[in-house]
Amino acid sequence: MKIAILNGSPRKENTAAMVDAFKAGAEEAGNEVCVLHVGRMKIGGCLGCEYCHGKGEGQCVQKDDMGQVIDAYKWADMVVFASPIYYSAMSAQLHAAIQRVYCIGKPAATKAALLLSTATGQTEPVEAYYKQLVAFLGMESCGVCKAVGEENKKEEKMAEIKAWAATIK
Q1: Cα dihedral sign, 135-130-37-59
Q2: Is 147 exposed, middle or buried (0-12, 13-18, 19+ CB in 10 A)?
Q3: How far is residue 166's CA from residue 98's CA, in Å, rounded to a whole number?
Q4: At residue 65, what are phi and psi to the nearest 5 degrees?
Q5: How far is Cα 166 from Cα 160, in angstroms, rounded to an integer?
Q6: 126 pLDDT above the threshold of 90
Q7: Secondary structure element (H or E) that encloses residue 26, with its range
Q8: CA–CA distance, 15 with 161 (Å, rounded to integer)
Q9: 41 close to 68: Cβ distance less than 8 angstroms
């Protein structure tokens, strides 16, 4: 299976450790994995201009890094959304990358998973959004993994994420 991981964290640690553990487990299971650090890419929010559904023929009017993400959406059998939680929401960078898929309609992927890094444990709003998103996109959810507080720095948690990813085929 081809798995695209969208890491929405603008930072180089915490969520990235979860992404690395997931990637290692998924690759050990024979999956092909690409990681896009959308949190550090230049991706603007959807303008709602409808250029993509008219003259653009599926191409967004904005010329930024989203082209790489669109390619991953088209390539992947599974998309993993990874994000820190800020003010009860996923990162703005990841949310922009999700919204901008509007230009192609729906990703080719049929499966999805969610990795969350949070200091407080307040994950319910993001999990609810994820469930709605997956249902709307017609994807099967393969689950949610959360690292609360310092868990995203602990070997036990990384081993748990790696083992979980190794079961996905």
Answers
A1: positive
A2: buried
A3: 25
A4: -75, 0
A5: 10
A6: yes
A7: helix 15-28
A8: 12
A9: yes
- pLDDT band of residue 110 (cuts 50, 70, 90) is very high
Q: How far apart are CA 105 and CA 118, in angstroms?
A: 30
Distance, CA of 115 to CA of 19 (rounded, Å):
8
pLDDT tens sequence across 64-78: 999 999 999 999 999
- What is the Cα–Cα distance from 102 to 115, expressed in whole angstroms? 22
Mean pLDDT of the chain: 93
Sketch out the chain's domains with CATH numbers. 2-166 (3.40.50.360)
Query: Which residue matches tokens 């290692």?
Result: 24
Bridge partners of 7, per DSSP, are 82
Range 104-123 average pLDDT: 89
Q: Does position 119 have pLDDT exceeding 90, yes or no?
A: no
Strand partners, 146: 116
